[in-house]
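Help!! Second protein's tokens look totally different from the first
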Amino acid sequence: MDHRFIVGRFISLGRIVEETREDYYRVLKTCSTGWPDRNEVLPWWNYFLTIVRRAYVEFADNVDRGEPHSGKSNLVEQAAPAMVGDFTLAELHAQLPSVSLPTIKKVLLELKSAGKLKLIGRGRGARWQVL
């Protein structure tokens, strides 16, 4: 059954590792001590499982709150309706360089379906209009 939840795509294990970088390097040091004669993998395995569990909890919290979009999708949802006059995909992407083009396109189509935007034209010359 499709409940239209897409939050799973936006839970980043890399971000969680970056946020716990001190633990990551501590665990790597512990595991590499005595290498190559001895390799203790258990500390790394525990760290990895902690990261996966934290990602799962974050995912579950997002689902419980009913948040179907990531922060980047929210950026597009706020920026697109605030554009003055007609705008192109490239113009919106220039204002949101950290957001991928596929994410911007997806959110623009959702806003179009919701009756908040109108698409004028096709291809590179296409323009979006706030309704």
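Here's the second one for comparison:
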Amino acid sequence: MSTIASTREHLLSLCIALVGGPALKEQKTFVDAAVAAGVKRFIPSDFGSDTSDTRAQAIVPFYTIKADIIAYLKSKEDAISWTAVITGAFFDWGLKVGGWGFNAKDKSVTLFDEGEATFSATTLHKIGLSLVKVLKHAEETRNQYVYVSSFNTSQKELLATAKKITGGEWAVTKMKTIDHIAAGREKLAKGDHSGIPMLIQGAIFQASPELGNNVPKGLWNDILGLEPENFEEVVKAGLSGRLVVDA
């Protein structure tokens, strides 16, 4: 928990939950503690995919936990307000660690569903900035899902940009998301939690239907005053193993 200034007009006491795994369920305890302490705004650990989408919940099991936390917050709106900041994929971080199918070291990529799916993604820097902006727009963002995005792109566009940056061709492996999801579920059923990132990838890169594209739900970038970023520069930083804040 922390208390920070949101605007020059007032102070807004705030609790930001940054938890994962089994601790996700404990957020109800956090909410109760925040209410008891007089906290006015709770931001749950809901960064990433739109966990309110039941289709995404059907692919990634713990998304239902996140949706349940929102339902709990809604039941407490007479005592505390909330904002769920939906960022899509962690863009530069995912490129840095290879989470989006790209391996810059050997110039190889796995394209899911031909790399056609459009998905929303946000740099870590802009995610942090979005939290500050939410506080500066406290009333507009009250009890809302707030969708932000640095870029709406596809693996195909990323590959074209990676080729431009690195020069030469990349080795391409193609995979169907339905098979990737099935493999992830099989691992998870055996207690192998390495299946979870596979399920998240499946939800992001599934081409039909597209689940990772938040544009149709309405981005808040303009309302929050979030400035555009340079796509090629961010891709270059991520592929070189740097985050935008390091660039």
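Reply: Different proteins will give different token patterns, so don't panic. Confidence is low (pLDDT under 50) at residues 1-11.
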